[in-house]
Each structure stands twice: as C-alpha cells, then as structure tokens.
C-alpha cells in the first residue's frame, strides 16, 4: 500500500522536471540528486561538461534552451510512473537560433526514463530525434 503515495510523489517530481525544461531552471536544486548520471544517445546534443548534479543539469537545460526561442517541452500521453522510475514520451518545439541562417521552426520528440532515489532524480536515460514541426 506504500507504493501509491510514492507514485503520486514521483508524478509531482516529474511535473517539476517538465517545468524545469520549460524554463524554471531553479527547480534543479530541488529535484536533482547528488551524483546524477545522464545517458544520452549519439543523436542527442552533447553537453560541454559532464552532467552530474543540480548545477550541471541546470547548465545543460539552459544551454539547450538558449539554442531556441520560445522552446516548449510538452509531455505526450500519460507518463508511466512506478515507485522508482518515471518514463515519458515528450515533444519539444521552438525556433532555432543559428548564426549562419535565419531562424526556423524545430521540433524533437523523445523518451526519458528517470530513476528516483530519496525523492530526487539520480539517473536519466534520454533519446530524441528531429520531428515534423507541425502535426496533422
């Protein structure tokens, strides 16, 4: 019976993860555990520094967001939540800022699997790919 409250707490934690990706960077201090580990696929933009704690997660998210104007991160469908993990399918959209061409609409879709320990995210597996900018 203890699992139900933990699932509710983990869903609330994931809600804060989404808010962080939507620009509330200060939430990283509350939701990211020490010794955080991220696993990125080859197609994911690689961070300039190792991602290992709230500060480096905040820098990673900020760098990702700074490449786009009006970036939004939306969860598609209901995330799968357990007492120790959250798995979600998401879509990020924005307008790319590039020095060599005019801004253009961009979209990515991806899946995150986040492991939780002691009420914080401690590990993330993420994979994403470019997507159509409009969905019929």
Secondary-structure topology with pairs:
Blueprint (H helix, E strand, L loop, with lengths): L2 H19 L6 H4 E9 L13 H13 L1 E14 L3 E12 L7 E14 L2 E11 L6
Parallel strand pairs: 1-5
Antiparallel strand pairs: 2-3, 3-4, 4-5
Overview of the structural elements:
The structure is a single chain. The protein is α+β, with helices and mostly antiparallel strands and 136 residues long. Helices cover 26% and strands 44% of the residues. The chain has a five-stranded mixed β-sheet with strand order 1-5-4-3-2. It has a single domain, classed as Nuclear Transport Factor 2, Chain: A (Roll), CATH 3.10.450. Strand 2 and strand 3 form a beta hairpin. The chain contains three helices and five strands, in the order ααβαββββ. The radius of gyration is 15 Å and the shape is globular.
User: Could you say which structural class the secondary elements and strand pairing correspond to?
Assistant: alpha+beta
User: Can you write the helix and strand succession as a string?
Assistant: HHEHEEEE
What portion of the residues fall into strands of 2 or more residues?
35-45%
CATH class (first level) name: Alpha Beta
The geometry reads as: globular
Number of domains: 1
Summarize the biggest pleated sheet.
Answer: 5 strands, mixed
Summarize model confidence as the mean pLDDT: 88
Helix percentage range: 25-40%
| Low-pLDDT residue intervals, each spanning 5 or more residues | none
- What is the radius of gyration? 15 Å
For the secondary structure, the number of strands is: 5
Q: Name the quaternary structure.
A: single chain
Instruction: List the total number of helices.
Output: 3
CATH architecture: Roll
CATH fold-type name:
Nuclear Transport Factor 2, Chain: A
How widely separated are the two ends?
A: 42 Å
- Major beta sheet, strand line-up: 1-5-4-3-2
């Amino acid at each position: 019976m203890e699992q139900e409250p933990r699932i509710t707490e983990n869903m609330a934690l994931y809600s804060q993860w989404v808010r962080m990706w939507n620009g509330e960077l200060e939430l990283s201090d509350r939701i990211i555990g020490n010794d955080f580990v991220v696993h990125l696929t080859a197609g994911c933009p690689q961070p300039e520094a190792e991602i290992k704690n709230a500060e480096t997660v905040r820098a990673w998210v900020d760098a990702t967001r700074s490449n786009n104007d009006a970036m939004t991160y939306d969860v598609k469908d209901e995330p799968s939540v357990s007492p120790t993990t959250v798995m979600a399918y998401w879509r990020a959209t924005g307008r790319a800022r590039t020095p060599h061409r005019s801004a253009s609409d961009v979209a990515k879709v991806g899946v995150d699997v986040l492991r939780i320990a002691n009420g914080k995210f401690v590990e993330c597996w993420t994979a994403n790919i470019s997507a159509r900018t409009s969905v019929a």
